[in-house]
What we know:
There is one protein chain. This protein has a five-stranded antiparallel β-sheet, with helices on one face. It has a three-stranded antiparallel β-sheet with strand order 2-3-4, covered by helices on one side. By secondary structure, it is mainly beta. It is built from two helices and eight strands, in the order E-H-E-E-E-E-E-H-E-E. The chain has helices spanning 10-17, 123-131, and strands spanning 3-6, 29-32, 52-58, 71-76, 98-104, 116-119, 138-143, 149-155. It has two domains: 8-76, first zn-finger domain of poly(adp-ribose) polymerase-1 (2-Layer Sandwich), CATH 3.30.1740; 86-155, no CATH class. Helix content is 11%, strand content 29%. The protein starts with a strand and ends with a strand. Strand 7 (138-143) and strand 8 form a beta hairpin. It is globular and about 40 Å long. Pfam families: DUF1203. InterPro entries: DUF1203.
Amino acid sequence: MTLRYKPMPSDLAARYRRREPDAYGLVPELHVSDGDGMPCRHCLANIAAGDPYLILAYRPFPTLQPYAETGPIFLHAEECDAYAGGEAVPPILMTSKDYLLRGYDADDRIVYGSGAVTPVDELDARAAELLERPEIAYVHVRSARNNCYQCRIERA
């Protein structure tokens, strides 16, 4: 199965860069990166030391509902290209030994029993296994320690 790693939508990243309200209705906070662990959810690469970035509340779901988790993310404050590697594991995912992968259905609800902490070198295999299940529409990659949203995986 061919997988597609997807960043946050570019139109949404642009809104946050214009300092429009985040998922909590707050203006994104502006900071300067120290270069350590600031993964941008748009280009899916680390934000370099000295570069400005935003911290904001992000809800990677189209509507509010009980499973629509919201959490903090980082985003380059200046425009960056959306991750276009598609089939390749994004650079930000190479910074940890494992991640939580969890499947969601077409109604954006967690598919129970699909979540598992997965070693980084097994991400593709586990995502493909999940996406072989007809009830799973897409997979979230989240931090195994803090549950922070990283990116989405879909069938290509």
